[in-house]
UniProtKB/TrEMBL annotation:
It is an enzyme of class 2 (transferase). It comes from Asprobacillus argus. SUPFAM superfamilies: alpha/beta knot (SSF75217). This is tRNA (guanine-N(1)-)-methyltransferase. The keyword Secreted does not apply. Keywords: Cytoplasm, Methyltransferase, S-adenosyl-L-methionine, Transferase, tRNA processing. The gene is trmD. Residues 1-224 form the tRNA methyltransferase TRMD/TRM10-type domain. Belongs to the RNA methyltransferase TrmD family. Signal peptide: none annotated. It catalyses: guanosine(37) in tRNA + S-adenosyl-L-methionine = N(1)-methylguanosine(37) in tRNA + S-adenosyl-L-homocysteine + H(+). GO terms for molecular function: tRNA (guanine(37)-N1)-methyltransferase activity.
Length: 225
């Protein structure tokens, strides 16, 4: 999979992709991430990328031309399966969306800043808009890093234990059950007997029951879906 990201704050994206799972995915050749600095498509001597909004109001808006020029230059080199705009005024990311995106070959992500981008960019180029939750971030960069992490870890071969991603919270609209490791008794706090029983069908039943209980308590909304 190849992911291209267009950003006005590319430095924010450098660190998250050089750690742990994403780093390994890159080293194994399973994922490539290319970051493009919107500023290099800016207009005039000052490389302008934003301007005040028509109709008045506080905050700057990212202009059409630098973004359109950047997108079209990238599109001349490859066809994108999806062009995604990261913005708080969109549907919230779910595991189901990440599953879908993990099957794509070429994804382009546009991150917003300031008051966002000129609506005509969204109308013309964007195939999907994604928010990562009901709160506002300074820019879409950290949200794009979250999206990329959630997608890349689902690519076969990225996570060592193939079954691991499939048993995550949310994979079947349930939260994960509690987990324990050694010691089995920590200052009188004991691991549930069932997990030490060696009876694996029973253990699976217990985990399903715990996952359901936890979901009912913490995220009953997931059970309605
Ligand atoms: Cl995608 N962008 C920004 N700026 N804030 C957010 C977000 C995205 N998702 C949640 N908050």
């Amino acid at each position: 999979m190849r992911i291209d990201i267009i950003s006005a704050a590319p430095d924010l994206l450098k660190s998250p992709f050089n750690h742990s799972i994403i780093k390994r995915a890159k080293e194994k050749g399973l994922a490539e991430i290319h970051i493009h600095d919107l500023r290099s498509f800016g207009l005039g001597n000052y490389r302008q990328i934003d301007d005040t909004q028509f109709g008045g109001g506080a905050g700057m808006v990212l202009m059409i031309e630098p973004i359109a020029n950047c997108i079209e230059q990238l599109q001349a080199e490859r066809t994108y399966d999806e062009i995604i705009y990261m913005t708080p005024d969109a549907k919230t990311l779910t595991q189901s969306v990440s599953n879908t995106l993990s099957l794509k070959e070429n994804i382009l992500i546009l991150t917003g800043h300031y008051k966002g981008v000129d609506q005509r960019i969204r109308d013309k180029y964007i195939t999907r808009e994604i928010s990562i939750g009901d709160y506002v971030l300074t820019g879409g960069e950290l949200a794009a890093a979250v999206l990329c992490d959630s997608i890349i870890r689902l690519i076969p071969g990225v996570i060592g234990d193939e079954t691991s991603a499939l048993t995550d919270s949310f994979q079947d609209n349930l939260l994960s059950p509690p987990v324990y490791t050694r010691p089995s008794d920590y200052k009188g706090m004991k691991v549930p007997d069932i997990l030490l029983s060696g009876n694996f069908p029973k253990i699976e039943d217990w985990r399903s029951e715990q996952a359901y209980k936890r979901t009912q308590q913490i995220r009953p909304d997931l059970l309605d879906e």
